[in-house]
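Worked Example 4.2. Consider the chain below.
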Amino acid sequence: MKTQFLRTLRRLGFLFLAATAPVVVGSAGWTAPVHAEEQALKGGTLRVALLGDMTNFDPQQFSTVNFHLIKNLYDSLIEYTAEGEPVPSLATAWAIAPDNQSVTVTLRDDVTFHSGAKLTSADVAATLAKAADPERGKNVYATMSIVKDWTTPDEKTVTINFKSPAPQRQITDLLQFLIPIEAAGIATVETVPAGTGAYLLDSRAVGQGLTLKANPNYWRKGQPIAEKIEFTIFSEDASASAALESDAVDIVYGGTSRSAVRLQDAGYQVLRGPGPLVQVFRINSTRPPFTNAKFRQAFNYLMDREGMLRVGYAGLGEVVALPWAPASPAFDAAYTDEFAYNLDKAKELLAESGLTPAEMSNWKMLVWGSDEPTVVISQILQSALAEAGINIELDVRQGAEYTEALLAGNFDATFGAVGNVQKFPSRVATNSIYRVVKNPVLKDPHPHPDYVAAIERVNTTSGPDADVKAAYDNLNRVLVTDAFAIPTNSYDTGLIVASPKLGGLALDIDNLFVARTVGFQ
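Applying the procedure from the previous section yields the following C-alpha cells:
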C-alpha cells in the first residue's frame, strides 16, 4: 500500500524534502522578541507577502487569515512568554482569588485607542459582553463559558467572576485571549478596527492587500520602528517566495514549510513560533454519509499522517491523532500509535457502517486551493479513499470563496487548521468545528452530547491531578469515538521567512505576526 501511495505522489509531481533543515529559533523552539534598541534598527516601509485575504477587523474572529493584523491593530490584557509564563500588557497586574472563583485586573492608565479615547474598564466590560454573546463572541465565546459576570469598581479595575473554581492556566488563557475593543467601536469593528495597537489602518484593497501606518501615540515607548507596513496578497506560495528573492517584499508571512526549508538554505531568516496549528479533517456529521458513526471512525485509520507531514509540510511538525500540540497537558502519544494508518482496519469499519459504495462516495471534499499543503494532503486522502473503494471529487475553491464556505459550515468535509492547541485543553472549543454551542458546521443542538459533556468536565475539574488526567483521558476517547474531526499533524503556522536585512523579528505565543519590534539593520 505504501509503495502505491508513493507512486501516486510521484505521478502528481510532489517533491520530497528533508525534515532536518535548521531554523532560527531560541530556547523552547521559539524566537523571543528582540529589543529594537539593542540592534539600533532603522524604520522604513515593511513589505509583507501574504497568501490569503483577511476576513474582518474583529479580533474575536481569531482566524488564521487575520493573524497578520490582530496583534498589530490590537493588544491583549496580558501576554505569554515562550515558556507560557504570563506577563503584563494592557493589564499591569492581575490577582486570582484564593478560591479561584474570580480575578481582578488592573489596567494601564496611559493607553489610548486609535480614536484618541482613553482605555478604561468600561471598554473591557463591553469587550467581555461581546465575547459572552453567542451571536457576537465568535472564537472567544467558548473561552467565556467559565465566566459568570464581571464588575468595574473604577476606571482602572475589572473583576471577572467565574461560575466555579477555575484552574489558574484557564484564567490566564482568558486574559491573554481577551483583546480590548473600544466600546464605541464594537458595533462597527468588523469593518473599522477599534484597537490600541502599534499600527493604524491606512488603506485596504479587497483581494489585493492593505497598508498600516505607525500609531504616533502608541504606549510602548520606542515602538513601532517601521513607519508603515504594506501587506500584499499573493495567489500562490511560489509567487510570494519569488517576490522575496527578487527583493520585491521583505517578509513572507504564513508561507509553506517546503518553501521555508528551501529559502533557509538560500540564506533567508526562518522563524518558527511556539504556537503551532493542528491540521484537522473537519467532518459535517449532520450530512450523509457522515451521520454514520462507523463511517466517520474509519477516517481515524485512513490518514497517512507521516506521509502528509513529510510531503505537505517538509516534515516540520509532529504527527498527531488528537488536536493537541505536544506541549498540551492533554497530549497523549499513545493515540498516534493506536490510530496509525491502517487500511484494513478502516475497511472493517466501513463494512460495519452498512453503507453501500455509492452512499460512501456521495460527497465532496472542500479544498482550500490557495494553500499548497492543504491541496497536497487532500489529494493524499483522496488516494487512500480510492484504495478503500470510495471515489470522491475535490471541490477546490480559492481565497474568500473557500473562507466563506468554511466559516458558514457549507461543506461535507474539509481540511482546516485549529489553534490554541498548546493551551488549556478546552480552548480547542474556540475553533469552529470544536465549538460546543453555535457551531457553524454542526449547528444547535450539538449532535455529539458526549463531547459537550467532556468539555464541561474538563472545565470544571480542578481537584487532584488524577481527576484532571481522567477528565483529559475522557475527552480524548470521546474525540476519536465521535470522530467529527480527525487530526493529522501539527505544523508551523505563521512561519516568517525574512530578508537578512531585517532585525527584531518575533512571533507571539499564538504565532501571530508582531511587527512593532521589526526594523532594518
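Residues 1-38 have pLDDT under 50 and may be disordered. Residues 234 and 240 are 6 Å apart (CA to CA). Compare this with Example 4.1 before moving on.
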